[in-house]
Amino acid sequence: MLRKSSLTYYFHELHPADLRLILPAATVQKIISEILPAASGLTFARDARDLLIECCVEFITLISSEANEIAEKDAKKTIACEHVTKALLELGFHDYVPEVQEVANEHKEQQKTREKKQSKMEQSGLSEAELLRQQEELFGAARVKYNQGPADGS
After folding, report:
1. Could you read off the pLDDT of 112-152 as tens digits, one per residue?
2. Which whole-number Å values give the CA distances from 60 to 51, 53, 55, 87, in the listed order?
3. Which of 46, 79, 97, 98 is deepest in the core (most CB within 10 A)?
4. Distance between CA 97 and CA 65 in Å, rounded?
5. Would the pTM of this model clear 0.90, i.e. be above it?
6. Residue range 42-87, pLDDT digits in tens
7. CA 27, CA 55: separation in Å to the nearest integer?
8. What does the alpha-carbon distance between residue 138 and residue 127 come to, in Å, rounded to a whole number?
């Protein structure tokens, strides 16, 4: 799929709808930098980073497609963690499953303890009765304006 040493040419050939399938190079570079400590003296060439990005997109597409098929077989409209796990197993990525499950469990725990965002009603500081009164007032004003018809006489 690569035609040049850099994916720059490849990126320009992509249909605009496919551009969303590219991982941000800066993010990938940050991950690489965290994995390759500066003290190691190793560097990661731009061409290698671009190839890694393409491989990651391909991997994510493969897993997503398989998980989608599994979800469809289960008559589900949303791909769940179980579908991704099953996709990894069916595609032979058994080694990834324990860590994926661990991350999924951590995420579920974080969601439980996450502060609940206040709704607009709670943020207003007004009682429900006062908010209903204001809503009725706005509806009444809109009704009057609608019943008056166009102001320019057309």
Report:
1. 777 666 677 777 788 888 888 999 999 999 999 889 887 66
2. 14, 11, 9, 11
3. 79
4. 17
5. no
6. 888 899 999 999 999 999 999 999 999 999 999 999 999 999 999 9
7. 15
8. 17
